[in-house]
Sequence to fold (324 residues):
Amino acid sequence: MIVIQNVGISSPVRIRRDCRKSIRWGVLLGLMIFIYGSHAPLITLTKIDGQVPFNPSSCVVIMELAKLLISLVTLFLTGATSVLRTPPSIFLVAPYAVPATLYAFNNNLVVLMQAYMDPSSYQVLSNLKIASTALLYSFCLGKRLRFSQWLALGLLMGAGVCQSYSTLDLGDPERAHAEAGLRLHITAWGVILMVVYCCVSGLAAVYTERVLKSQKLPLSLQNIYLYAFGVAINGLCSFYVASERSFLEGYSWVVWAIISGQAANGLLMSVVLKHGSGITRLFVISCSMLVNAVLSWAILGLQLTLFFLLPVSMIGQAAYLYYR
Fold:
């Protein structure tokens, strides 16, 4: 007698499981988009006479330390402490020093670039890291993208440029010339540094994804290795880079909110790179620009125009083309 299994019985279970998984991913990505989008408006709220009253390098150190401590607590809560009974191999831990070094390098490069271009030019040109990340993702990880997916990433980069361009204050050229800080300018060194920044940004994301996926270790343990190097490297940078402010000078509840949000985002990004892809990270960053604009309108009084609808539609079209 031939027995045919009733595959329909498991279908509702599978549907509910997939539905719960989709909801979890939706909540995770939505939270990341909101945190990314609120970063710039929160920094603006901390400014006094146009300057941030705290030491930015100390913020990075505290963020890395917070992520390290949360990863340690998570490792204990999940009962995965058995992996700590034997000392890890140097060949197992060493790869995590590379992304920590690349991220620390880019954090300092952002500060250096401000001397060779205005902030608005930086905001527009930094969208080129979408192209660099996609190219490195394809070549280094061997991921072949369809033509529609390359077109989607092109739309995503175009949406970033449009959104950045829409925030430029070009309506009063006389005022822009009167105030040096508002003039649009970029030097040859600025272009070179921007290319380096975009390549390093893409390389850091792709390399981190490769390391997280290639090692069969608990994600909390991988985060411990990654953020231990992050604390050490950024701590050294903070120690050697001269600053006019002390380590915790100028901290307020807004600064602590920024630190908490960015620490949470770093941990959530590890989940995306471990179980998703670096391309998802690009969509999160692009969507966060829209949240940034809305929060800037609601909190800071930024005036939105109909031009704002163009990057919104481009991001929506890009998501449809890439994930269909």
Observations:
- Residues 54-242+251-323 form one domain.
- Residues 10-46 form the longest helix (37 residues).
